[in-house]
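Need tokens for this chain, all 302 residues.
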Amino acid sequence: MMNRYNPTLLTTLGGFLSAAIALIPLLPFPILVLLSYFAPLPLLLVGLGVGLRAFYGAGLLATSLILLSGDFLSAGQFFLFSALCPGILLSRILLNRPTSSGKVSWYPSPLILRDFTFLLGAIAVCAFGCYVYTVQTGYLQTLLQPLLTLLNSQGQAREIFLHLVPFIPGLFAFSWGMTLLVNGILAQGLLVRFQHNLRPTPPLTTLQAPLSFTIAFGVCILLSLVGVGYVDAFGKTGALVLAFPFFLIGLGIIHQWLYRTTYSTLWFTLFYVSLILLTWPIVFAVLLGLLRPWLTKLMPSH
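Here are the structure tokens for all 302 residues:
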């Protein structure tokens, strides 16, 4: 376990590394901006390897260092999206209790997925509120005006872009969820590789969503199709948030299928490359997640 090392040293190192990665956009190298998406990685390494207190300690240190750079907005965003919200989820992931047999019972992965979705929903509601405010005040039009001016000479590109604007709150929440998921998988994978993980890796194949998620997803799709104005935007936001858990459940089903193939490593590589480059594998995974209750009856057990 990582906590056999000096927890204070690990906490400090995690905070400094996270702040350094978060401040990369300040460097005069635009190509490095994408690396800033890995700012939560050192914090999650500390949290999943040492514990929740160390995670928050590293998060507060990183936030303080970003504050010293003079960028108060970035510091606030970092604390909220890289420390506070991930910490809420981490508190559930690390929740455990001893059983009568002496083993450790960890917080179930379906409940982690449920709580993750609720957290995404809370972020999406805040993002939707900001969207409504910026639309009403005209600030959104001001922000998008340079891009709209550019697209005005591109035929139907401007109209297509305007149709995509209501997706912004949901896309923000979905992309944050994917960023946290990727960083979490990388952190847990590294810790498992070097045998420093506190918790065993929860398998994707055990994930499932409550029936209420399926119903709510259907309602949101309906609102996005027949709604107008803010109702339409709300439906799109909700659909994107609820697509996230079904996407992960679908990945679990695909993992089950690929594990049974002869060249599983090759198929995994091809699938995840297509997942990054294309859209349809994401839609396919979401559809599989929605159909899981019926598909599990057709799939043989291990």
